[in-house]
Amino acid sequence: MKYDAVVFDLLTALIDSWTLWNDVAGSPETGLRWRRRYLEITYGRGAYRPYETLVREAAADSGLPASLGEALERRWDELRPWPEARDVLAGLRVPLGVATNCSVRLGARAAAAVGVPFATVVTAESAGFYKPRPEPYRAVLAALGTAPARTLFVAGSPSDVPGAQAVGMPVFWHNRIGLAAPAGAQPQYHAPSLEPLARLLAAGGEG
Q: Considering the entire predicted model, what is its pTM?
């Protein structure tokens, strides 16, 4: 299979958002608890409610000050891509897109932090729904004008594996921090780094 485009989950597959959440929360343990609650709310939500609101609610649900949501937003521009991300993406000779679970405003700022041009950036806000609902994946495919089977999705969060596959996209799971595999779904490719992407596309998708 030769891929005509590659779409990325932004805040885990391309960007080390874990470090910022943990730092704002005060410790890795607290940050993980807050982040997990946020993911539960988001994945169960479906239809878009403001990302910033869900982040504050997740903090409060986790026994943390809701003001951590504002602190995360103030420090948003501290987000940095994974070390190899910029070089790997710069070497991919196909259009690149993003499908991310955040607001238009914060999604644009995070995408800019990666340092490479994207053909399109689709957010939960612009699609009207949060992943793993199909609408964000379909919106990015429509924007790119590519067929699902020929558009590789690079997941960071486990839920993106069945989410992207449900609309017919093959999945490369960049499982940086060793998360548990999603129940009932297996990615076509699985690695703890983005580096195999360059070899995968050079080989026409074989591997």
A: 0.94
